[in-house]
Amino acid sequence: MKALLLENVHPEAERILNEKGIEVETRKGALDTEELIDALDGVELLGIRSKTQVTREVFDAHPELLSVGAFCIGTNQIDLTAATEHAVTCFNAPYSNTRSVVELAIAEIISMARHLTDKNQAMHEGVWDKSATGAHEVRGRTLGIVGYGNIGSQLSVLAETLGMRVYYYDIVDRLPLGNAQRCDTLEELLERVETVSLHVDGRAGNDSLFGREQFERMRPRSLFLNLCRGMVVDYNALRDALVSGHIAGASVDVFPNEPKSAGDPFSSVLQGLPNVILTPHIGGSTQEAQVDIGRFVAGKLSAFVTSGSTTLSVNMPQVQLNSAVNGTRMLHLHRNVPGVLATVNSVLGSHGINIDRQQLSTRGDTGYLVTDAANGVTREVIEQILALPETIRLSTIN
């Protein structure tokens, strides 16, 4: 079995996959669609980060692909509908870089409140600007978090330890941590807080979530952060709000169009503005986070191909399998319609196969049946199950 890892996935991932006997090819940068299609010849496992787009065209060209691992939080760069239709199991790392992103957000809030970037630039230019004008503590100030998931909720906790008052808005009814207060609408949040930090996912509904209207609703001289997705914000509108002085500072880590590789040229309408921090999508780029992500996603990929476990898959029914394979394990992805389990067991029974262990899980239109049999699983049995009209993919582990 062969894996392809792109975009500088941490070497820990390669080590874990190698230990399972998987051959690994690594590449530093992202690939466009045609490059990816060419690179996937003979590959069963694909590892990416945030820039490589795995489209329906890619899945159509490579029916042999078994699994895609996103070595990051988001999965909007993968066409999950197409992946499921092609029986490709996808994983991500929903927790591993949470702390790194939160620490960057805290650092940037403090830096903007104290105008540290402006002070730093002045010092490098030989200007001694020792002044308290425009510099503020964050203690006692209000923070509004848009998106109260893994990152937003942890930011809430750390911000409170600094003495900030936290409000949040999320389309899901999430339990507040600490003393955080939920806002019923985004508009309510924007009118109550002095700092806004975005932590939403990359679903289509969040495209252009934050634009001119939202910036105008923010309180005068507020601070703004986007460390989630570039497509969420209208950066021309942000520039206008910064130039007018309505927004006092901004920190941006993500952009609608990002360079494919380190060292490539970058351009943004936000360049050159005072009290604006621009970083190259490094929210989760700490050594600790990258090691954890490499270990976590590679572990999911290796567990899937060695045992069939789909625990924490983002698109497939979840079956947790920690037991060793004795005999033959059949992994049957099928359309979720009534009678599939009975039909498969009828096939096995007609061949005198005794079932040692069996698990079935469903998710939407897809079902996943895992069956362990000590003996008797012949090619004829496999072909009969493959021929069932409900079968999407059948693989075996011995």
Automatic annotation (TrEMBL):
SUPFAM superfamilies in alphabetical order: ACT-like, Formate/glycerate dehydrogenase catalytic domain-like, NAD(P)-binding Rossmann-fold domains
Keywords: Amino-acid biosynthesis, NAD, Oxidoreductase, Serine biosynthesis
Any one GO molecular-function label of the UniProt entry: (S)-2-hydroxyglutarate dehydrogenase activity
GO biological process: L-serine biosynthetic process
ACT domain span: 329-398
Pathway per the UniProt entry: Amino-acid biosynthesis; L-serine biosynthesis; L-serine from 3-phospho-D-glycerate: step 1/3
Superkingdom, natural source: Bacteria
Enzyme Commission code(s) on record: 1.1.1.399, 1.1.1.95
Function per UniProt: Catalyzes the reversible oxidation of 3-phospho-D-glycerate to 3-phosphonooxypyruvate, the first step of the phosphorylated L-serine biosynthesis pathway. Also catalyzes the reversible oxidation of 2-hydroxyglutarate to 2-oxoglutarate.
PANTHER family for this protein: D-ISOMER SPECIFIC 2-HYDROXYACID DEHYDROGENASE FAMILY PROTEIN (AFU_ORTHOLOGUE AFUA_6G10090)
Annotated family: Belongs to the D-isomer specific 2-hydroxyacid dehydrogenase family.
Protein name: D-3-phosphoglycerate dehydrogenase
Gene name of the encoded protein: serA
